[in-house]
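REQUEST
  id: r-88c1
  op: predict_structure
  target: Carboxymuconolactone decarboxylase-like domain-containing protein
  payload:
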Amino acid sequence: MHMNTGILKALGIILIFSLSLFSISNAQDMQRAALNHKQQNLIAIAAQTAKGDLAALKGNLNNGLDAGLTVNEIKEAILHSYAYCGFPRSIRGLQTFMTVLDDRKAKGLNDVIGADASAILAEGKKFDRGKVILEKLTGVKETEPKKGYAAFAPTMEIFLKEHLFADIFERDVLSFKDRELVTIAVISSIGFAEPMLRSHLNICLNLGLTAQQLQQFIGIVKPIIGEEKTLAAANELSEVLKSKN
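RESPONSE
  id: r-88c1
  status: 200
  body:
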């Protein structure tokens, strides 16, 4: 009888230990699958910059710095945003960031500046470099005849290749993944640009972001951009994910 009790206790201990290991493993898997804290804050900062709610943006900027984003990483996210929401929103975002940094410095907080963008030493025409970068982002070769807006207004295609995908995406402070998270945050925030959002959600998947991470993205932007725009973004994500099955 005593032996049976001892065996049962031992089995109980082994079971508890196994469940603990299982729980830890599951938690670690979930953590690896989730967007990291820096990415989550980049998304919120970009969405709020595009929305133009500067009072709320101050909170997002403080949260981002507290989460470990460097000053230059945040600056780069706001700079990147201008390509999708325009100079006025981006400049107001930068001005708000300057105020936040001054306030934090007055409180004795010394934020990490971080690495600045490296000089771009790439050779060749910017149009060709932008084309190569776009192919890396989409995973699709740029060989098809142009159609739609690119055929209707070829100058826009030149601007996109030379400026957006060369001048901006070539900069190294943020990774392609981070830049795309900033991009979909801005496009979701401005709203009514679903074809562009769809394209960039596909790019996110091509770069290795997961369906779970993109669903997490929807949850991050929801309290910032509101129900209507969140629903539109969620619908686009759902359609993109269905097309991959």
